[in-house]
Amino acid sequence: MPNTALLRRASALAVMIAMPGLALAQAPQKAPIPAANTPAANTPAAAPSADSVVASVNGKPITQGDLAIAADDPALSLPGVDEAQKKNLLVDYMVDLRVGAQAAESAKIGDTPEFKRKLAYFRDKLLLDDYLEQEAKRAVTPEAEHAIYDQTVKLMKPEEEVHARHILVDNEAEAKKIAARIKGGEDFAKVAAEASKDPGSKTEGGDLGWFTKERMVPDFANAAFAMKPGQVSDPIKTQFGWHVIKVEEKRTKPQPTFDELKEQIDQHLIRKAQQDMILKLRSEAKIERTDAPPAAQPESEPKKP
């Protein structure tokens, strides 16, 4: 059980970094609701400027732009926290950050060789990240997206799909009785809910939805795809037990729409553009490796007596 007194004394920095989940337990501060017909209720508030000062630490300002950068930090993600509370937490975090940074400056932490190496590393990383982000924005265009989509659907071969139901039982004798009941006129879905051992489909009347042949084990798939819509099978044995199958419908699998593939297409375009850019930059740069191991020397043959 956490020490509640300690938590109350914890700084915003500790709360935001070490224990981000704590913010979810705090009661959100509700902003007052303006009257229905007042200007505040009907006029949207203008977005604050990035240069707007929200606080200062020893005379050094903290701006709205500083908060925006902090909000983009994955380590400071606060899902489920309302905007007003999130802003308060970010301001407190930035105050703690500035207080600590100023103390570190006074302690000459920034003058050490190790710190300078870290600073150079993170500067390079941020530069590359922003450069890759710009490349990603250039790569994802409607023309490029639709070109990839058209190429993709052209390569897709038509596939047959079956919409089927099944009832799974432990032995052939039981499966034969069930097949006889259904062929005698009983409702398949009702019998499935009563007798099927498949927990994933029995509550749905044995419904397996649409599937292509390779999604099912061979014996089951071969039987289902050989049947006609409305037909009920004799018992079929697989590694899972004995099945009675009813085929509801058959169709050629529809091609995915552009919207269904858009996210995958965009990720492909981004990865390819960024990879191509890095390979191009490497090919144009003069790169020397000084840590390569020396080439192995061939062993001399022993002298013959």
Main features:
four-stranded antiparallel β-sheet; alpha+beta; 305 residues; two-stranded antiparallel ribbon
Describe this structure in words.
The chain is α+β, with helices and mostly antiparallel strands and 305 residues long. Helices cover 49% and strands 13% of the residues. The chain contains 12 helices and 6 strands. It has helices spanning 4-9, 12-17, 22-25, 39-42, 64-71, 83-106, 113-139, 142-155, 172-183, 188-195, 218-226, 258-284, and strands spanning 53-57, 60-63, 160-169, 207-212, 236-238, 241-252. The strands form 2 sheets. It has a 4-stranded antiparallel sheet, with helices on both faces. The chain has a two-stranded antiparallel ribbon with strand order 1-2. A hairpin with a 2-residue loop joins strand 5 (236-238) and strand 6 (241-252). Helix 8 (142-155) crosses helix 12 (258-284). The model is unreliable at 1-36 (pLDDT under 50).
